Amino acid sequence: MPVPPLSGVHRRPLLRDNVFDSLRNAIVDGTFEPGEKLRDTELEAWLGVSRTPIREAMLRLERAGLVIALPGKATIVAPCDLASTRSCQQVVAGLHELAARLAVPLLTEEHISAMAEANARFEQALQDVDVESALTADDDFHGVFVTVSGNPVLRELLEQTTPVLRRVERMRFGSFAARGSVAQHAEIIRLARLGDAEAAARECRENWLSLRFASAE
Fold first, then answer.
1. 125 within some domain
2. How far apart are CA 44 and CA 20, in angstroms?
3. What's the confidence (pLDDT) of residue 213?
4. What is the model's pLDDT at position 150?
5. How many domains does the chain have?
6. Lowest mean pLDDT among 6-10, 33-37, 54-58
7. How many whole angstroms separate alpha carbon 132 and alpha carbon 44?
């Protein structure tokens, strides 16, 4: 199992969430590829932590659908399974629809401006084929609704389900297929400015359902 070049990168004791985040990000960004074996000893050397927080993180990653534990054998990075990805997409789309419905009545002009600025960064990142910046800008755009909704359970559920989609998003945001999201974001902003929570929520849901999986099939 190839690991990032820096060993013991986390010299100070990590919280469980930090270990989980590091492993999840390495899977999502392709550092650990689908089907790759994840060995405790190598992960310990990379993260600079004991086996216990790694095992706990693996359980969370398994629940999130990012790893598969083979009893008595190994833990491997889960493949980009089409059925699982579509299932997560439906849940994520519904959660963002709810976030928009809750948030729109509470939005200020500052929130609207933040969404517009994030969409401008998103468009520029797509033009530059800068996948990391596109993902960040897209998260910032949708994050306004999630934050303003005031529902912490929404955020928790999205943190569990979105990583499965993130691998597909990385492929999509590196192609021309994502350009339509810029216009969808603009329409969401327009509806939010009008205070039309139901229409904005529906458009937000459609935006997430527009994510295609041809590259993952």
1. yes
2. 13
3. 61
4. 96
5. 2
6. 6-10
7. 26
